[in-house]
Amino acid sequence: MISYTDIKPGKVLSIDNEPFEVVWTSGVVKKQRQKPHNTAKMRNLRSGATVEKTFSQSDKIIEADLETTPVKYLYTNKGESMFCDPNNPRDRFTLNTTVLGNKLDYLVDNSVIDALRFYGDIISIKLPNKVNLLVAEAPPNIRGNTSAGGNKVVVLETGLKVTTPLFINAGDILRVNTETGVYSERVVK
């Protein structure tokens, strides 16, 4: 059991035996003549549906008991993403792309990541904080284009568009933050 003050983005709660990931919270709010409360916007990890719920002091909040298992990402086709056990490629399963959301922007074929299990069922994946991705397309540098800060938008191998400094070229490998989607650094070849 956790307190309503401990509900923060990224926490996974178990509500009616369903896993909900907290996406946004208002923080603890106390208005005149009202009890303090914390409003949270949450996403169901099984269905992808978003709900909003207000928690108060008297609520019994259960943090979801999640286990992690390594899995290998294979491919995505027709709204389904295919994964397998890294040691046994015959042991395959699929996850709906609506449940995965923007996590697919950071997955490269055959990459090994962690899957989240809830009561034995694999419900989602957990990305590392930063991933390395190859630059597929980068516009050329234009001389004298540094007055506005010297940035350009490049397209990575997964289709993700990231704002980077002017010295980034096609073929470079970039480290990108998966939580914010922001360029971190160029990885030395």
Describe this structure in words.
Helix content is 2%, strand content 51%. With 189 residues, the chain is an all-beta fold. The chain has 3 domains: 4-63, SH3 type barrels, CATH 2.30.30; 66-126, OB fold (Dihydrolipoamide Acetyltransferase, E2P), CATH 2.40.50; 130-187, OB fold (Dihydrolipoamide Acetyltransferase, E2P) (Beta Barrel). Strands 4-3-2-1-5 form a 5-stranded antiparallel β-sheet, with no helix packed on it. Strands 8-7-6-9-10 form a 5-stranded antiparallel β-sheet. Strand 3 and strand 4 form a beta hairpin. It is flat and about 60 Å long. 14% of the residues are buried.
How would you describe this structure in keywords?
SH3 type barrels; OB fold (Dihydrolipoamide Acetyltransferase, E2P); 1 helix; 189 residues; mainly beta; 3 domains; 51% strand; single chain; five-stranded antiparallel beta sheet
Rg over CA atoms, rounded to whole Å, is 20 Å
Low-pLDDT runs of 5+ residues are none
**CATH superfamily label of the largest domain:** Nucleic acid-binding proteins
Number of domains: 3
Query: What's the SSE pattern?
Result: EEEEEEEEHEEEEEEE
> Can you list the strand order of the major beta sheet?
4-3-2-1-5
- The total count of helices amounts to 1
Determine the structural class based on helices, strands and strand pairing: mainly beta
CATH topology title of the largest domain: OB fold (Dihydrolipoamide Acetyltransferase, E2P)
